[in-house]
């Protein structure tokens, strides 16, 4: 903790270290990060963390510590902080290097050409900070001409691609010392390109942009990069032998990004809010970086700043495109995994820290690792199997993220007025009102399902659809899929969590012609009875079980069963 924590002014949206200190916002001291960077002996460090976990603020802190510019004034920013207490050897490094600090988090270009324009503007501003180099006697005339082309935004694509490397070389010529590169949210343009369909062009540019700056660069002292993910090494970081990756599974820097329990306790003590501790923990704690338990810092300070109102602050600041990808095509496997997660059960995934965005839709392991690094899941434990492959058990971290899953599932499957229909449908289902259940289900199929969706592996699609819709019953029912009961395996069963509530069995069929639906629905209902699918429900004390056979054909359906 720091003296600034006696000030209750919350730094919501403040990611400039100088501003935070000078204006005396409430501040949790993370300057030990500087010591750890120095102890790490240079090289290239990539730190991946979810958005709004303090990456930009910590990079700003590194900038003000190391930069030659205004070094005497900057030294005062660290008075009384942990780095000053660490000893003179560390403070001797303050104000000792030329530093390039560039953040790409604003890169939201809808197309590739506009992305390049955005980067050219960033580089114009960046180069403008070092305009004094145009007066340097150490620079050749062609160096200065190149410099002026970057500022004028007349440089060609190849010149822009090597601009970071060239700037470091110019700084070394002038200062006689290697530069530090701080590149914040390096993958923001890549994520945007994936969302908007120009991923390959973006990757091709970023591969050169980063490799020129980082690979065998004699003008580079050390580099720190932050991002949400580690983009596949083959695509971006090829040939970087001195790359140190610190992911959410790593122990290094595990307590630097986000708030620890001790830090939150101190903050609550200062603000007179210790009575909020347990609820705050349920809502915003639960992340695990390495073995360190971490709170979402944005949500904690927003909660205090908003008169202690519990709501999903973090989710309102970041697009949920990654989560929407999971839900874009609900199939049985993904729907079952979602139900497992929402009901508090972990799911296991192979550890793949090199994210290939091209694999997100097809590869569940890649997608779940993306959800982990992006902050939608947390690692409960890791282990190696007998083939030395590393696995991780994943869970939803807290109530804030659980709400995101519920909201996004409903928004993607049954948006807007469809949620009202959904509630009516599921209520009718559990009350045995088969006619109403069928009417509401057909309305949802008509309004929110396309023929394209239902024509691709139809049994899997309808199974996944109903399983996904059942998230509405979180806290009321435990939903099981393809579980053995009686003399076979039912498709879906709803196990009530409250005493005396009814249970539900669903058996699903698909047919190619509408005239076959009624016969298929009756056959499905008969199958439930003859195979005694309700056995597991009655064994657990459920007294009333509603049985439904449902047949689908495109956007049409027939239902048999109910009261």
Question: What is the gist of this entry?
Answer:
The chain has 563 residues and is of the alpha/beta class. It is built from 25 helices and 19 strands. The chain has a five-stranded parallel β-sheet, with helices on both faces. A five-stranded mixed β-sheet has the order 13-16-17-18-19. The protein has a three-stranded antiparallel β-sheet with strand order 9-12-11.
Keywords, separated by commas or semicolons:
alpha/beta, elongated, five-stranded parallel beta sheet, 44% helix, 563 residues, Rossmann fold
Proportion in β-strands: 15-25%
Question: Would you identify the regions where 5 or more consecutive residues have pLDDT less than 50?
Answer: none
- Biggest sheet descriptor: 5 strands, parallel
What class would the helix/strand composition place it in?
Answer: alpha/beta
How far apart the termini lie comes to 63 Å
Share of helix, binned = 40-55%
Task: List the strand order in the largest sheet.
Answer: 2-3-4-1-6
Shape: elongated
Rg? 28 Å
Per DSSP, the total helix count is: 25
Strand elements, count: 19
Mean pLDDT over all positions: 88
Describe this structure in words.
With 563 residues, the protein is α/β, with parallel strands linked by helices. It is 44% helix and 17% strand. A five-stranded parallel sheet has the order 2-3-4-1-6, with helices on both faces. Strands 13-16-17-18-19 form a five-stranded mixed sheet. The chain is built from 25 helices and 19 strands. α7 packs across α8 (141-152) and α10 (163-175) runs parallel beside α12. Among the domains are: 31-107 and 178-246, Rossmann fold, CATH 3.40.50; 321-402, no CATH class; 414-561, no CATH class. It is elongated and about 90 Å long. It starts with 16 loop residues before the first helix and ends with a strand. A hairpin with a 5-residue loop joins β11 and β12.
């Amino acid at each position: 903790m720091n003296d600034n924590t006696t000030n209750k002014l919350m730094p919501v949206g403040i990611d400039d270290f100088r501003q935070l200190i000078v204006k005396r916002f409430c501040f949790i001291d993370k300057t030990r990060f500087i010591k750890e960077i120095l102890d790490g002996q240079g090289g290239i460090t990539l730190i991946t963390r979810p958005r709004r976990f303090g990456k930009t603020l910590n990079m700003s802190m590194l900038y003000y510590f190391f930069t030659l510019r205004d070094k005497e004034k900057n030294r005062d920013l660290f008075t009384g902080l942990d780095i000053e207490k660490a000893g003179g050897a560390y403070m001797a490094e303050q104000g000792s290097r030329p530093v390039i600090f560039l953040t790409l988090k604003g890169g939201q270009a809808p197309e590739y050409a506009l992305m390049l324009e955005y980067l050219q503007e960033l580089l114009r501003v960046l180069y403008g900070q070092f305009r004094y180099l145009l007066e340097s006697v150490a620079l050749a005339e062609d160096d200065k001409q190149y410099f002026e082309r970057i500022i004028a935004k007349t440089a060609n694509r190849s010149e822009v691609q090597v601009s970071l490397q060239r700037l470091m070389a110019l700084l070394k010529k002038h200062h006689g010392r290697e530069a530090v590169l701080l590149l914040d949210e390096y993958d923001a343009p890549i994520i945007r390109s994936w969302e908007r369909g120009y991923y390959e062009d973006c990757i091709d540019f970023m591969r050169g942009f980063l490799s020129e700056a980082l690979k065998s660069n004699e003008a580079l002292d050390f580099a720190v990069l932050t991002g949400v993910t580690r983009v596949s090494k083959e695509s971006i970081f090829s040939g970087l032998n001195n790359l140190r990756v610190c992911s959410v599974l790593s122990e290094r820097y595990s307590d630097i990004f986000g708030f620890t329990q001790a830090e939150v306790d101190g903050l609550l003590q200062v603000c007179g809010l210790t009575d909020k501790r347990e609820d705050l923990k349920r809502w915003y704690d639960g992340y695990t970086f390495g073995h360190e338990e971490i709170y979402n810092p944005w949500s904690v300070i927003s909660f205090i700043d908003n008169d202690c109102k519990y709501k999903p602050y973090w989710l309102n600041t970041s697009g949920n495109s990654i989560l929407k990808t999971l839900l874009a095509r609900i199939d049985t496997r993904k729907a079952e995994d979602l139900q497992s997660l929402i009901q508090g059960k972990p799911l296991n995934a192979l550890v793949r820290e090199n994210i290939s965005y091209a694999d997100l839709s097809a590869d569940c392991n890649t997608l779940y690792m993306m959800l982990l690094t992006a902050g939608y899941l947390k690692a409960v434990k890791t282990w190696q199997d007998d083939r030395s492959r590393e696995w991780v058990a994943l869970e939803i971290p807290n109530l804030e993220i659980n709400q995101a899953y519920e909201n996004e599932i409903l928004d993607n499957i049954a948006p807007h007025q469809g949620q009202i229909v959904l509630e009516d449908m599921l209520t009718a289902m559990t009350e045995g009102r088969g006619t109403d259940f069928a009417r509401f289900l057909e309305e949802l199929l008509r309004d929110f399902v396309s023929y394209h969706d239902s024509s691709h592996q139809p049994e899997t699609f309808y199974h996944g659809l109903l399983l996904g819709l059942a998230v509405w019953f979180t806290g009321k029912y435990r939903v099981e899929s393809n579980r053995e009961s009686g003399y076979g395996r039912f498709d879906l069963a709803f196990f009530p969590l409250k005493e005396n509530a009814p249970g539900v069995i669903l058996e699903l069929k698909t047919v190619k012609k509408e005239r076959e639906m009624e016969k298929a629905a009756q056959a499905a209902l008969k199958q439930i009875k003859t195979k005694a699918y309700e056995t597991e429900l009655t064994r657990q004390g459920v007294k009333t079980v509603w049985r439904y056979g449902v047949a689908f054909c495109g956007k049409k359906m027939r239902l048999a069963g109910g009261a």
